[in-house]
Amino acid sequence: MTRVLAAARLQLAHPLVVLGVPWLVVTTSFLINLAIWGMADVAEKSGNTTNTGGLASLYITVIVVFSQAMTQMFPLAMGLSLSRRTYYLGTAAAALVQSLGFGLGLTVLEAVEDATNGWGVGLHFWAGGGLDVGNPLLQLVVFTLPMIAACSIGLGIGVVFKRWGAAGIYGLSIGVLLTAGVLAILVTWRNAWGDLWAWLTDRSVESLTITLPLVLAVAVAGLAYLGLRRTVP
C-alpha cells in the first residue's frame, strides 16, 4: 500500500501541470464566453438562457494530462523500481481523487452559476446542455464519472503510445475513425438517424453522464492495464 501511495504521489511531481493546466484552459474558455455573452447579449437575443460546450475543454485537457502520466511518468516509476501493477494502481488512485476534487469544484461553480442567473448574463457554462440536475450530490456524480472516464481514456492512449509508439496512435485513430464511419454508414443505410436521435433524447441526463461513462471507464481501464503489463519504459 505504501508503494501504491508513492506511485500516486508521483502524479503530483508537477502539480501546476496536472492540476493547474486543466483549470487554466477551462477558465480561459469561461472568461472568453463570459465576455461574449456579456457584450453581445446572447441570452437576451436568443430569448432564453444559453449554454456553451466550453466545459469539454476541461475533460479534453485531463485526457492529455493522463496520457502524459504514461508517456512521461511511467519510465520514472520504473527507474524507482515500482512494478507496473503498483504504478497502475497508484495512478488510478490519483485519477479517482483528482476526478472527485474536480467534480466538487464544478459542483460549486454550477451552484454559483445558478444563484447568479448565469453570471448575470444568462450563460450556462459549467452545467450547460441540461447537465444541471438540481441535486448537489447527484450533480457531483454527474461531473465526476465522466472525469474518471476521461482519465481512463488518457491512460489508455498513453499505454498505446508507450507500447506501440506513433504507429499505435495512428492505428488507434484510424480504428476509431473506421468504427465511427461504419456505424454512420449502417445507420444511414437503415434510415435510422431519427430513431437514434429519439433514443438519445429519451435517455436521462443521469444515464448519459453516469452509466455510459462508468462502462467506458471500466472497459478502457481494464484494457489499459492489460496493455501496460507488456509495456517497456
TrEMBL record:
Bilayer-spanning residue ranges: 12-36, 56-80, 87-109, 137-161, 168-189, 209-228
Superkingdom classification of source: Bacteria
Keywords of the record: Membrane, Transmembrane, Transmembrane helix
Protein name: Uncharacterized protein
